[in-house]
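Batch manifest line 226
LIGAND: calcium ion
JOB: complex structure
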Amino acid sequence: MRVLVVEDEPDVAEALAWGLSAEGYVVDVAGNGVDGLWKAAESPHDVIVLDVMLPGMDGYQVCRALRGRGIWTPILMLTALDEDLDHAEGLDSGADDYLPKPFSYPVLLAHLRSLTRRALGARPAVLTAAGLALDPAARTVARDGAPLDLTVREFAVLEYLLRAAGRVVSKTELLEHCWDAHFDGDPTAVEVLVHRLRRKIETPGAAGGSIVDTVRGQGYVIRERS
Ligand code: CA
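JOB STATUS: finished
ARTIFACT:
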């Protein structure tokens, strides 16, 4: 999951970036509205955390501009003004959800999970496929009830493929959503990671074949099996 944080207070932005990275999110940070708008339009994000009080272009204006350009990434607005009017304005400008400052970190994470779930259609809180159960809130993965030990990036890739189950996901898309923007974008990194992930989640010679299928020239897919 790739998140864009638009926040002008460096301490808050840094704390958010650090905390969200630790949760396995790929985090981009913008320090003002204009930069936020540019970053949101330039590369795909799964969710945007948008502060309302920003210098120059405020959060409402950024939100309206994004929607006006046809960018429908879910937006969580952070408002310091705990007044009904501001909440209404936030939602009217095209935001999907809002959170008054100061907020508790677990509540922020829960809002982000809820937004990304909704954006991807009806998806359960715990993602399952072929005996796997991945719980984004608890950050656990189990295979037939036995816990698996995945790295943060392996977890992010598996979560992304599970959320997209039934659809082929390209290496480029995985790079965009599971690697940070500073990465040089070599698709070999995706191949290496998927290879490692398969060794952890798949039982060799198991009936029903592999969980993560390679579609030559296109990418990877977790097929939805009944
Ligand atoms: Ca601010």
